[in-house]
Amino acid sequence: MNQQKTFLVFGATGQTGRQFTALALREGHKVRAVARDPEKFDLAGPDLEVHQGVVPHVIDLDGLLQDVDFVVSMLGNAAQQRKQAMNTAVVRELVPAMGRQGVKRFLYQAGGLSKPPGRRLSPLLWMLKHTVARELIGQHKDNEAVMRFLADSACDIEWIVHRASINPNGRSKGVLRRSERSLSLASFEDCAEYNFRTVMDSTAFHTCDLSVYRKA
Ligand SMILES: NC(=O)c1ccc[n+]([C@@H]2O[C@H](COP(=O)([O-])OP(=O)(O)OC[C@H]3O[C@@H](n4cnc5c(N)ncnc54)[C@H](OP(=O)(O)O)[C@@H]3O)[C@@H](O)[C@H]2O)c1
Question: Could you tell me the distance, in angstroms and rounded to a whole number, from the CA of residue 132 to the centre of ligand 1?
Fold first, then answer.
């Protein structure tokens, strides 16, 4: 391991977030996780702190950000996001708190069908978003509002958006790379590994890219 870092993780108990947290701990880093129900989190260890918090009513962000190097959000709740832009609400509070606490780096996991600001979805992605993935429209609207907020109002922080495309039953198939136009349906594990690597990648700052498997 290089130097030990501290990650503040939102959505740490979720399918991507749990894989991310386990990987960061395996790599020797510290994780401060925000969980709705800390009791149900099945990871533990001296480098893991779990704080109870329900978004968008997240508690003491300034306190959570103390001594943090990287913030990563893998939050999502399709039912709640149909009624409320919960991720946007927390990101709008998080970014100023990061400024106050001198924390620079933030990776946010959105979806491949969420439209980045100033760009269009390909006709195929647009069609998928409005047909088979129609019930997730609230999540995409929320993700799109987060991306607009970051692009318009967070130029001082080193934010990165990963527009992930996930096969919920998929197995690890290799290493994902960043791409403006191509995507792969990836496993949660591979998305988590991509997030872990990409949050440390300065070439990814201020991008809202997709991810695709590297050719062997
Ligand atoms: N799953 C996919 O196929 C897919 C594909 C592309 C993109 N994405 C995007 O990637 C992100 C993460 O996806 P995922 O499938 O890993 O998510 P997930 O398994 O549904 O996990 C979501 C996480 O958010 C937490 N959460 C939900 N509502 C919360 C609230 N009100 N306050 C605090 N925490 C809350 C959950 O906590 P609990 O454990 O307490 O529920 C969990 O830790 C989502 O934004 C999604 O849009 C997902």
Answer: 19
